[in-house]
Design a protein that fits this description.
alpha/beta
Amino acid sequence: MKYDFSARAHTLLSSQLLSIRTQTRRGSMISLAEELPAEELFPLSLLAETASTVISADAGALQYGDPEGYGPLREWLTGDWLKAKGVAVAEGGVLLTTGSQQAIDLLSRVYIDPGDCVLVENPTSPGMLQALRMQGAVIIPVQGDRDGLLPDHLRSQILQYRPKMLYAAPSFTNPSGVLWNLTRRKEILELCIAHDVLIVEDDSYGDLHFERYNEHPLGKYPSLYALENVSDGGHVLYIGSFSKTVAPALRTGWAAGSRELISVMAAAKQMADWQSSSLNQRLLHHLLDVSAFDLREHIKLLNREYHTRFKLMIELLKRPAWKQSSYELPVGGMFLWVSLPDGMDVHALLRCALGKGVAFLPGPLCSVDGGGQYIRLNFTHPGRDELLLGMNLMSEAVTEFTARS
């Protein structure tokens, strides 16, 4: 039969992001495109021990659980881990989700009506753009620089469009790697409070940094959620994930904020999947709270290795093929945001690169208007040898296009 899909479904069927992900699943393809951590750094032995212990100890691990998530893991999260970040969460103010992407999707379902205006950093997360487009939101870009969003432009966009929400990732924005300074964080927060705009603060990459930035007693800039310091009824929904720091397949993220907001998101979650995997959450809790695994030390390990891979990518970008390209050096995150020479067709470049066996993410997929001469390169997933080979293939593709022009 001829299937009559909804108008919104066509935004998925025509998604180049989906096409890229499908092609990068080929075994021989080197992917610099995706948001993947280094799998060789997963705590495999401890996870294996944890799985055996959790499953053999209690058959309830395989039973349905609470829609809000496994209680002991929520307590661990809102206890030492978030408190060390200056984040205080009211009882009932946290929801465990299937990764941070589901937190974004659930909020979009319950908070955004078709035609509502939503502000986003530009460039921003391609997954976030997809979720908003599926809800029929009118997406409004906000300009920024290396210190974060520009307060004057945010103010003008708020006054012109009267948005319901701002989505932002102040700590190592995807894809640009921007780290907002403390002044910008305070200015953006004050503007949104004054105009009653909900901020969705994505901190999925915040723990992945290459150096300590000690302007704050916590050893890093505080989150917008911590700066507002309102555990209930505030203007910030704080979301994050264990996917980038432990293992993506555990599919465990969180949303922390107002109990009213969390309760409505939890109701939507019951309709979507009832609950995220109770088994995965029990495994994660045992790993974090009972086993010998030390998450803070593991993150230090990740940061040392990712910094090494980052420096390797920077050295490879000094080759002649990239002499007309430019980029800013982030101090954390998972990506390098590279500006290509004017006139270079990034989509045609991708087709050439795929033919050589390497993939990257075209910058237009991270842009509200789909324009731009940027590409996003991931340096955390490929091993050092694979990264070297992948960048060599990228250089070949760029050289071909430069020669043609």
